[in-house]
Amino acid sequence: MNIEHGPLCRLFPGKVLDFTTLRGSHDASDPYSGFSVCGYTGDRAEHYLGCRAALAADLGINDPQAIIQPRQVHGDKIAMLDDAFRTLDLQGQEKLLDGTDGTITARRQVAIGINTADCVPILLYSYQGTQLVAAIHAGWRGTLAGIAAKAVRQMVQAGARKIAAYIGVSICRQCFEVGDEVAEAFASAGLGGEIISRNKVTGKAHIDLQAANRHQLAGCGIAPEMIFTDGRCSRHDASGNYFSARRIGVHSGRTFTGIMLL
Q: What would the DSSP string read from start to end of 12-57?
């Protein structure tokens, strides 16, 4: 198995499957080695396509094209993968997903997800009302743009009534050092308080991206007990199972965090 299951499928068995890929066995000298399905960070096509086929097999999906991943740009564009999306050819789908940092769908047996190497992956599942799932990429820019809250609003507009959220493996506050201009932008956006701290030795600002997104999700009306935060840090991960741009470089593989309606 190349994946670990998340809390949503345990809470709602037989209805939804959420998962995170594991890097697994790899060559420490090769930043792309191990399990990675990302195709736009410089990896060899035969590698990531092979991993994608293996992931489809693990998920019980016949067609690897049913694993949908946007080409992320640290923005706040979210694509609704509806029947109109399904009618597009592969080139049309790729065009729609280019420059997109989140997806929402009501389609079953289609896995949507995002690739990360320190940024925050967020999965959403509407367990009352219209059945929907969403996968959101929230780096610091996306977090400032409120991408998680935007996804919740779009799900509600599409008929969702109650939503559960999972904030996945990502960089922790201790590891996420930022410039003063970023810290000031977070404070101006109402994301101050315990979200921003200072290293007592260096005086540098640090941001808790997981806490910032949790705050935004709760502000959208999601019950606090339905927001599950993984808490593990991708950068100082001791298992070697999660890619980290700050640890091994931007030109490297990615961890894929996904969700699928059953």
A: STTTEEEEEE---S--TT-TT-SS----SSS--HHHHHHHHHHHHH
Distance CA 5, CA 91 (A): 31
Backbone dihedral angles phi then psi of residue 186, each to the nearest 5 degrees? -65, -45
The topology (CATH level 3) of 3-249 is: CNF1/YfiH-like putative cysteine hydrolases (3.60.140)
Q: Cβ-count burial of 170 within 10 angstroms (0-12 exposed, 13-18 middle, 19+ buried)?
A: buried
Q: What is the dihedral of CA 255, 73, 98, 252, to 10 degrees?
A: -40
Would you call 212 exposed, middle or buried from its count of C-beta atoms within 10 A (0-12, 13-18, 19+)? buried
Residues 84/95, Cβ–Cβ less than 8 Å: no
CA torsion sign, 157 to 163 to 168 to 170? positive
For the chain, which residues make up each domain, given as ranges?
3-249
Q: Are 165 and 201 in contact (CB under 8 A)?
A: no
> In sequence order, which ranges of the chain are alpha helices (DSSP H)?
7-11, 45-59, 83-87, 90-97, 140-144, 147-157, 180-188, 209-219, 245-248
- Within 13 Å and on the Cβ side, how many CA atoms surround 57? 8
Calculate the CA dihedral of residues 22, 101, 229, 108 and round it to 10 degrees.
-70
Quote the DSSP letter at residue 65: G
Summarised one tens digit per residue, pLDDT across range 186-210 is 999 999 889 999 999 999 999 999 9
DSSP H helices, 72-177, are: 83-87, 90-97, 140-144, 147-157
The pLDDT tens digits for 29-86 are 999 999 999 999 999 999 999 999 999 999 999 888 899 999 999 999 999 998 888 8
